[in-house]
Amino acid sequence: MENDALVRDVLLLAYRAFDGSMKGKTMLQKRIYFLSVMLGTELGFDAHYYGPYSEEVASANAELKSLGYLSEMASPFGVDQRGFEMARYDYKLTEAGIRLADKKAAKMPKMTAAIVKAANVITEAGNLDYMELSIAAKAYYVLTKLNGKATKEDIAGMLPKFGWNVTNEQLEKATAFLERSQLVAKPITATH
In this predicted model, what pLDDT tens digit does every residue of 4-26 receive, in sequence order? Predict the structure, then answer.
């Protein structure tokens, strides 16, 4: 219960820090994942098909939507290989959500400042699309499993163990993002 409230608070403050909206569920999950890493806060993330995923974050997002604090808009996103239509779900704070987020920010100034700072780091490290951010999250997740010390080849070798396939170019872009966001202390190097 206590963690549920924390997840909702972080989520509301994250929406506020990212200009009130998130474009897609994958973007939502990955931004919150990186926020949780930067905050040192456990929000239930584990390995998943599209990278680190938290059912707690997904549930809190659905709850905020059902309570009228978030609006959801579905946009057609093409057709998958089986012929099924796909959609991207975008979320935006409603007027009530903005008021609630502002109240939370006033009651939790330290957490708000930390979330704003982390959101700025994520944004300034590179305006990655949802897929690129997902790959960066996968690379960082693997790096944590390797105790924070690894080459790009080490990371590339671990990714398939989680069912993740990433090209060298994608990994290069992802690790550059991790370096710019200061999530890694030293550049992740290639072995020669």
Answer: 899 999 999 999 999 999 999 99
